[in-house]
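Hi, here's the filled form for the chain we discussed.

Project: internal
Contact: R.S.
Residues: 108
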Amino acid sequence: MAKGSSNCPLLSSLSRLGIIPVLEAKKDLINPIRNGILLKLTAKSLFSIANRGSPRCCKRDSFLAIIEAVEFMKEHFKINLPIKEKIGCSFFHLNTECLHEHCKFYQQ
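And the returned structure, exactly as it came back:
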């Protein structure tokens, strides 16, 4: 594990995303259908993050994973979770690799 990765919200977000469908379906993790759904949610989240192709940013990656989870829950479980129309990040000053205006979550 990379130094400081235990403090990364992305790791924590992705690990928590998997529990959402399990709780909703009231099933255990051993069920192969349920396990497939969990893998799809993780894959969609990681694909969204990978498509950014930019320097590391745990906040941005967490926002992207959460947006994917909200869409996933709507699509697979017909559950509409509330999410802000415009998500803004105020942590840009803490990340020297921030893309600023080129990040969809950047707010001045």
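Let me know if anything looks off before we file it.
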